[in-house]
Specification:
Strand order of the largest sheet: 1-2-3-7-6-5-4
Helix content: 25-40%
Number of strands: 7
Shape: elongated
Mean pLDDT: 83
Structural class: alpha+beta
Radius of gyration: 36 Å
Number of helices: 4
Order of helices and strands: HEHEEHEHEEE
Distance between the termini: 119 Å
Low-confidence stretches: 66-72
């Protein structure tokens, strides 16, 4: 006696909302698609990564050059903190360039050495804010001592013209020694040593 055969099921058509099946992808087309995908990934990841690496190297080299330049003088490139500027009363004008500073402290005195390149208006504003004015600048006078110049490597040997003033304040407020180089008449270079005695 033969076993009962399984009933045949009629072939069903796919649901009407199902998209028709695509024919199988041939090998050549698959390889080309994978290559294109790999190239896109390399471009999306590799190019920005390469750009970042080059930028970082350039920035690092530039930073090293600046460090060498200022390390020779003891100065630190950039602006002193707001607290330092307030304590030593050195209000550097906005938009100043070539700003650098150095601070020393001992049990008797504290000093902040600052240099900046500004405009004539910036110099006037700076002097007004420390309680002086441009009329007090004496032509040919360099008010920063030899000792202080050696600390940060300032050499006031250029043609100038040079001018300077000393702005005294009663203790505990600091005293500012200001020397100005006007070799560029429109943009003076300003050197300040502010000394605080607790």
């Amino acid at each position: 006696m033969n076993p009962p055969s399984s009933p045949s099921v009629p072939r069903q058509s796919p649901p009407p909302d199902e998209p028709p099946r695509q024919p199988a992808e041939d090998r050549k087309h698959m390889i080309r698609r994978r290559w294109i995908t790999a190239i896109i990934i390399v471009l999306l990841i590799g190019v920005p990564a390469g750009y970042l690496a080059i930028s970082a190297a350039q920035s690092r080299d530039s930073g090293r050059d600046k460090e060498k330049k200022y390390a020779a003088t003891g100065l630190t490139e950039g602006w002193p903190s707001k607290v330092q500027r307030r304590i030593y009363e050195v209000p550097i004008p906005g938009y100043s360039l070539k700003v650098a500073y150095y601070e020393t402290n001992n049990w008797r005195t504290s000093r902040l050495y600052v240099q900046f390149y500004t405009s004539n208006e910036g110099l006037d504003r700076f002097l007004q804010q420390i309680g002086a004015n441009s009329d007090e600048l004496e032509d040919g006078r360099i008010t920063i001592s030899e000792r202080d110049r050696k600390v940060v490597g300032w050499e006031f040997s250029g043609p100038g013209p040079w001018s300077g003033l000393i702005h005294d304040n009663p203790n505990p407020r600091p005293t500012q020694h200001v020397t100005v180089d006007r070799s560029n008449p429109q943009h003076p270079m300003v050197y300040v040593v502010s000394t605080a005695t607790p």
